């Protein structure tokens, strides 16, 4: 699922659905959240230096992070109930 972009960066091209995320364990979700936050940081850095090519990716990453955090919260609430 990883492809080299024109700049040599590794880009992840996948569609993250909430149903797929609900099937993952909390550890898998935390790992994926960490990866997305690292990618978000790199994209912010690229934007600041004027090297960002795919501006839509910033929005996609932000929404994916929110989606994972929401699912993680749902799992915490259901475990405590």
What does this structure look like?
With 81 residues, the chain is mostly helical. It has one domain: Helix Hairpins. It contains three helices and two strands; from the N terminus they run E-E-H-H-H. Strands 1-2 form a two-stranded antiparallel ribbon. Helix 2 (26-48) packs antiparallel against helix 3 (56-80). It is elongated and about 45 Å long.
How would you summarize this macromolecular structure in one to three sentences?
This protein is mainly α. 65% of the residues lie in helices and 7% in strands.
Give the N-to-C terminal Cα separation: 37 Å
- Class from secondary-structure proportions: mainly alpha
Instruction: State the order of secondary-structure elements, H for helix, E for strand.
Output: EEHHH
Q: Helix tally?
A: 3
Oligomeric organization of the protein chains:
single chain
Shape: elongated
Radius of gyration: 14 Å
Uncertain ranges = 1-9
Number of domains: 1
Q: Give the number of DSSP strands.
A: 2
Query: Quick one: CATH class?
Result: Mainly Alpha
């Amino acid at each position: 699922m990883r492809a080299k972009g024109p700049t040599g960066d590794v880009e992840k091209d996948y569609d993250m659905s909430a149903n797929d995320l609900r099937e993952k364990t909390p550890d898998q979700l935390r790992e994926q959240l960490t990866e997305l936050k690292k990618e978000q940081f790199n994209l912010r850095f690229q934007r600041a230096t004027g090297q960002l090519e795919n501006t839509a990716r910033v929005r996609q990453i932000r929404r994916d992070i929110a989606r994972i955090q929401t699912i993680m919260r749902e799992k915490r609430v259901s475990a405590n109930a």
